[in-house]
Amino acid sequence: KKSGNNNFHHAKNLFMDYDYQQTNFSKAVLAGLFAGIAATLANLLYDYVYRDITSYWPSEIINVSSIIVATTLLLTVAGIIFHLFRQYIKNGSTGYFIFFTALTALCIYGALHVQRSSDPVVTIEFRQLLLGVVIISGAAALLIPYLYRHSKIFC
């Protein structure tokens, strides 16, 4: 029994023990990716619950595939933007927070004015669905600086 345990520890050290110092860039990208995965799950849950409650079914624009790809990609890019803010702007974290707060507010404003259909009910329901996705994604983008500072959460 003891030799089997030693084999496990040897295999663990052989395959899982590495000395990799994360760079600031890799931490920012991973923070964005983690925020993207979390926001994707939240957006999928919101999409499911919203459609179940309202019986809104048109899914040409907002659907499972578009939520997964867009949310994950956009928040990973937000992680890269966070890195650029930190790298090239004094008080970059604050600048990033202000920039993404303003961008989220602009996207909320846009979502409230989208014209999806000639049917006003469909347009209102689409706006509400889009608004939830925008708010969830924007909130996740604002969490990237926190995740960057606390990278042990995802590493």
Output the structural class.
Answer: mainly alpha
Helix content: over 70%
Low-confidence regions: none
C-alpha end-to-end distance = 32 Å
User: How many H/I helical runs?
Assistant: 5
The major sheet is characterized as:
none
Please give the number of β-strands.
0
Record the SSE blueprint.
Elements: H1 2-16, H2 24-54, H3 64-88, H4 92-112, H5 120-149
Helix pairs in contact: 2-3, 2-5, 3-4, 3-5, 4-5
Give a verbal description of the structure.
Helices cover 79% and strands 0% of the residues. It is mainly α. α2 packs antiparallel against α3. The longest helix has 31 residues, at 24-54. It starts with a helix and ends in a 6-residue tail after the last helix. The model has no long low-confidence stretch (mean pLDDT 90).
Structural features:
155 residues, mainly alpha, 5 helices, 79% helix, flat
Summarize the model shown.
This protein is mostly helical. It contains five helices and no strands. Helix 2 runs antiparallel to helix 3 (64-88), helix 3 packs antiparallel against helix 4 (92-112) and helix 4 (92-112) runs antiparallel to helix 5 (120-149).
